[in-house]
């Protein structure tokens, strides 16, 4: 590039030519050399399936082009255009092959799958982070579109792999571990507000919330269902219909009183074993315990309504502050 710039500027200055005349003179001097470079590039690209190398080459051209524009040299414009016509189709071809490969992949043929992040999703995350990171300097909407297609196929593939687990809880753990891993890689190497990052944040938050409901249900499912049912009834103004729920209230209160501390410990152990990212696991645990406090608060609020006001069982309710004190024992110290 430097030699070509010097040659072009010398020709313009020495022969006092501009425009097409300068371009033609430059081509007559440097044409064979540039043609040789293009031929070598064509031969290399033909057998190359390293999409990151191809994409890096494209962005090197963008940077070189920016440099020679500042030097007011237009002699290499045709050369850059010719190189890009070689590189862009190859880059798209490789990405499309990756998309098709993910689409055709059958999870049942991948051997045993556990709930930890899968190597395919890690490879995708690292690849996507590399492309997104490079693309940030000279953003290209077409690249974003192609990556979006690849991301959609990877999301579908993750769901297909999750479906291999028989229990919904295991499916959610697998999804959360994979989304968290991909999000971590992307946030480390790209802008925090990139489109890919935002997508996986939403997916992670959605599955995390579903998992929280899933782990609370075995221990506090009766109370949670009762709260939701009664809130709907209260919204409709059908307070009198709550009278038939008095026995249900007694069972819920006494069941909660006898088992809530043990349930907290079981939830803590369950969450800490499930997630490969300790930080993510502690956040999920805190989210679950916070959700439990909210449900218990809503439960007490329901019991202060209508026919529940005068129930003797209300005197047996554990104070919510006592529950909160116990919950704080599981708060991380780091």
From TrEMBL:
InterPro entries: Vps52, Vps52_C
GO (cellular component) term, any one: cytosol
Entries under Pfam families matching the protein: Vps52_C
A GO biological process held by the record: lysosomal transport
MF annotations from Gene Ontology: syntaxin binding
Residues in Vps52 C-terminal domain copies: 1-212
Name of the protein in its database record: Vps52 C-terminal domain-containing protein
């Amino acid at each position: 590039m430097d030699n070509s710039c010097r040659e072009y500027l010398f020709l313009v200055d020495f022969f006092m030519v501009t425009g097409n005349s300068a371009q033609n003179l430059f081509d007559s001097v440097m044409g064979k050399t540039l043609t040789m470079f293009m031929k070598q590039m064509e031969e290399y690209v033909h057998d190359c399936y390293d999409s990151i190398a191809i994409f890096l080459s494209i962005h090197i051209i963008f940077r070189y082009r920016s440099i020679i524009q500042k030097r007011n040299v237009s002699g290499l414009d045709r050369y850059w255009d010719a190189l890009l016509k070689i590189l862009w189709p190859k880059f798209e071809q490789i990405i499309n092959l990756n998309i098709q490969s993910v689409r055709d992949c059958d999870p049942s043929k991948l051997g045993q799958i556990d709930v930890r992040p899968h190597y395919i999703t890690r490879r995708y995350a690292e690849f996507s982070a590399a492309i997104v990171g490079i693309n940030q300097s000279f953003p290209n909407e077409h690249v974003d579109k192609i990556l979006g297609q690849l991301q959609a196929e990877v999301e579908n593939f993750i769901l297909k792999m999750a479906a291999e687990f028989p229990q919904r809880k295991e499916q959610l753990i697998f999804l959360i571990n994979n989304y968290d891993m991909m999000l971590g890689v992307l946030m480390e190497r790209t802008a925090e507000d990139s489109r890919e990052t935002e997508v996986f944040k939403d997916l992670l938050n959605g599955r995390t919330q579903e998992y929280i409901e899933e782990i609370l249900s075995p221990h506090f499912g009766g109370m949670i269902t009762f709260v939701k049912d009664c809130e709907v009834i209260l919204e409709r103004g059908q307070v009198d219909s709550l009278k038939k729920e008095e026995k249900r209230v007694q069972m819920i209160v006494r069941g909660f009183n006898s088992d809530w501390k043990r349930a907290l410990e079981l939830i803590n152990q369950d969450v800490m074993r499930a997630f490969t990212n300790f930080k993510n696991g502690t956040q999920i645990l805190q989210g679950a315990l916070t959700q439990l406090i909210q449900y218990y608060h809503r439960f007490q609020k329901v019991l202060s309504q209508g026919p529940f006001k005068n129930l003797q069982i209300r005197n047996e309710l554990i104070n919510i502050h006592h529950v909160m004190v116990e919950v704080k024992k599981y708060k991380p110290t780091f």
